[in-house]
Amino acid sequence: MQRGQGQLSETFYSTSCPKVESIVRQVVAQKIAQTFVTIPATLRLFFHDCFVEGCDASVIIASPNGNAEKDAPDNLSLAGDGFDTVIKAKAAVEQSCPRVVSCADILTIAARDVVALAGGPSFKVELGRRDGLISMASRVAGNLPEPNFNLAQLNAIFAKNNLNQTDMIALSGAHTLGFAHCTRFANRLYSFSPSSPVDPKLNSTYAQQLMQACPQNVDPQIAINMDPVTPRTFDNSYFKNLVNKMGLFTSDEMLFTNKASQATVVDFANNPGNFNGAFIAAMRKLGRVGVKTGTAGQIRVDCTAFNS
């Protein structure tokens, strides 16, 4: 059991802030109406938060010295719209229930909401996390999966967070949404190996499309949809794409080409209900990682700063 995990509860705020989930949902919906990026940005922010120091909103802290968790190289590509969603939701919640609901819980609720609002499954979230007191850029390296990881490396980094291979594959399905910068997969198009510049595991038509979108030496700001089929819908297309050799990262495609994970990918590609069920289970488990409860941590007033 992770420390304090047993003290999370779906009804944690039922008397202290009974409307918290509807308040957050309203802010999230408004933010999505302004920009679609809200959806992948918020979901990814939750994942990055939980994998470093646990689900404690440590990733949202801003440092004047540029040395907070969010300033680490692996976190620089986290889109501002995810942070903004949590900050706006926190402000709305503070008006109803000041100093009651943690930023960590607001991020957890918002991550659940963006999945549902993108057409994915709805599910209940456990609440009662408190906000962390540590946020350091130096503590990020080695704690987040990289796009070139193999199955053993992915399984190891997820296992460290109490997540098994099925959870890892289900959470990878979040790549049905959002964008990736060309630099993160250019090696598969231009420099895969001396004998084959293009990764032979990449669908050749898809490789041509990627080369058009991401020419060599392209502006590093350029990003493309991770799911070229239904980029704005939370569905199981990611797994269908993998079967069709259209996984964008090596760490995506490998889930299909490695025999040890292939059966799960094929199952999720063929059975959206199985994927949704596994995704919900994995999100709930992810939300328990390294949580602070009881008197640990604090309830931040401003999500971007520790209480003074």
From TrEMBL:
Q: What is this protein called?
A: Peroxidase
The record places domain Plant heme peroxidase family profile at 7-307
* Family stated for the protein in its record: Belongs to the peroxidase family. Ascorbate peroxidase subfamily. Belongs to the peroxidase family. Classical plant (class III) peroxidase subfamily.
Q: What function does this protein fulfil?
A: Removal of H(2)O(2), oxidation of toxic reductants, biosynthesis and degradation of lignin, suberization, auxin catabolism, response to environmental stresses such as wounding, pathogen attack and oxidative stress.
Subcellular location(s): the record lists: Secreted
Cofactor entry: heme b; Ca(2+)
Q: What is its main location?
A: secreted
Q: How is the cofactor bound?
A: Binds 1 heme b (iron(II)-protoporphyrin IX) group per subunit.
Q: Check the record and name the Pfam families matching this protein.
A: peroxidase
Q: Which residues cross the membrane?
A: none
Q: Does the keyword Cell cycle apply?
A: no
Top-rank taxon: Eukaryota
Query: Which reactions fall under this protein's catalytic activity?
Result: 2 a phenolic donor + H2O2 = 2 a phenolic radical donor + 2 H2O
Q: What is its EC number?
A: 1.11.1.7
Q: Which UniProt keywords apply?
A: Calcium, Disulfide bond, Heme, Hydrogen peroxide, Iron, Metal-binding, Oxidoreductase, Peroxidase, Secreted
Please give the InterPro entries that the UniProt record associates with this protein: Haem_peroxidase, Haem_peroxidase_sf, Peroxidase_pln, Peroxidases_heam-ligand_BS, Secretory_peroxidase
